[in-house]
Write a structure and sequence with these properties.
398 residues, alpha/beta, Aspartate Aminotransferase, domain 1, 2 domains, 7-stranded mixed beta sheet, 4-stranded mixed beta sheet, binds pyridoxal-5'-phosphate
Length: 398
């Protein structure tokens, strides 16, 4: 007899494009930090839709905002003004370096907009600058421009030619960046902590050095905060740890707590280059998504969630450090910031992840050897204890 999970997997494989390697369960319900699969098994969710459902599943305040907006207006397009989008932009600009926001629907679209804008801005000020410097092991999305910026050649294979003018420096190595700068460099795009590339925080001083380099050379600095933004690192934006601000920043993932929405934030001067007709999105900043994201923002910033995430992040780091010491050479390193943590193993992470799932804990991989933990920011200490106990057992048993 097949289980409901197996039946759904079989149906999926008959009709869906096989571009994902799913874990072998179908998730049917979520509440707070837990989800349930199609056979009724409950899991502690330490991946949160890949750092996305940061307030937990079906958060009551986000649900209330969704229901309220759903009764009023779902969509009008950007042919008209809609108030939820304006409200959200007011909050984001009020809390960051930025003065202007462009809304879209995903991280890739936010980065696509940012990269396009950097070229356009440079051209508008009479500079023939179109080159983009990104980093090895980075991840910026799957559109052709953003996957070209993504510093992982395995994602380029078969899609060449890539967008011209994109170069990759070594993450954390300012000299390797300097070596790639030319009079045609338009922008540098960087994650304040590499997520998909293995949960690697930027070394101290690196973002500051990039800022100084950009200022000296007339280059725009883009921070991709799709994964690190909205409290994931313990501050609202990851760049706040580094004492520097970018010229452009991108957000998605946790911005809507699972309702698809992305954003590209920048200064008034740079935003001027996107005059009517230059860039657009039908759904971008749609009232439903924007109303949810505004509720998420308010809960994060005034509901005490950010402060909680900081404390919980330190607690998780401490527990993981203790675990690594107990496990000796079964763990290479634990690292990260806030509630985005990686456990680097000497071998493939897949087996440990599978064993965690059997034991009732959902995590995923960031690169081949790194187990990534990105629990909801509202996670409690007892749930962190439970998760670390499961991970330790899974590593020992795998
Ligand atoms: C740093 C970063 N940028 C961009 C993206 C792409 O976002 P999306 O999958 O929403 O297009 C991701 C997704 O993992 C990401 O981690």
């Amino acid at each position: 007899m097949t289980t409901k999970n197996e039946q759904l997997a079989a149906r999926a494989q008959r009709v869906l494009v096989g571009n994902y390697k799913q874990q072998p369960i179908a998730v049917v319900r979520g509440e707070g930090v837990h989800v349930w699969d199609a056979d009724g098994k409950r899991y502690l969710d330490f991946i949160a839709g890949i750092a996305t459902t940061s307030l937990g599943h079906c958060h009551p305040k986000v649900l209330a905002a969704l229901e309220k907006q759903a009764k009023q207006l779902w969509h009008a397009s950007n042919v008209f003004y809609t108030e939820p989008q304006i409200e959200l932009a007011e909050r984001l600009t009020g809390a960051s370096f930025a003065e202007r926001v462009f809304f879209c629907n995903s991280g890739a679209e936010a980065n696509e907009a940012a990269l396009k804008l950097t070229r356009r801005f440079q051209r508008d000020r009479g500079e023939d600058r179109f080159e983009i410097i990104a980093f090895e092991s980075s991840f910026h999305g799957r559109t052709l421009f953003t996957v070209s910026a993504t510093g992982q050649p395995k994602y380029w294979k078969g899609f060449e030619p890539m967008v011209p003018g994109v170069k990759h420096a070594r993450y954390g190595d300012i000299e390797s960046v300097r070596a790639l700068v030319t009079r045609q460099t338009a922008a540098i795009i960087v994650e304040p902590m590499q997520g998909e590339g293995g949960v690697r925080p930027a070394p101290a001083g690196f973002l500051k050095a990039l800022r100084a380099l950009c200022d000296g050379e007339g280059i725009l600095l883009v921070f991709d905060e799709v994964q690190t933004g909205m409290g994931r690192t313990g501050k609202l934006f990851g760049y706040e740890h580094h004492g520097v601000a970018p010229d452009l920043m991108t957000l998605a993932k946790a911005l809507g707590n699972g309702i698809p929405i992305g954003a590209m934030l920048t200064t008034e001067a740079i935003a001027k280059s996107l005059v009517p007709g230059t860039h657009a999105s039908t759904f971008g900043g749609n009232p439903l998504a924007a109303a949810c994201a505004t509720a998420v923002f308010d809960e994060l910033t005034t509901g005490g969630v950010l402060e909680h995430a900081q404390i919980a992040g330190e607690y998780l780091a401490g527990r993981l450090g203790d675990m690594a010491r107990r496990l000796g050479d079964r763990v290479v390193e634990t690292r990260g910031q806030g509630l985005l943590r990686g456990i680097e193993l000497p071998g493939e992470a897949g087996k440990v992840i599978g064993r965690c799932r059997e034991l009732g804990l959902l995590v995923n991989a960031a690169g081949e050897r790194v187990v990534r933990l990105a629990p909801p920011l509202v996670v409690e200490h007892v749930q962190i204890d439970e998760a670390v106990d499961v991970i330790e057992r899974a590593i020992v048993e795998s």
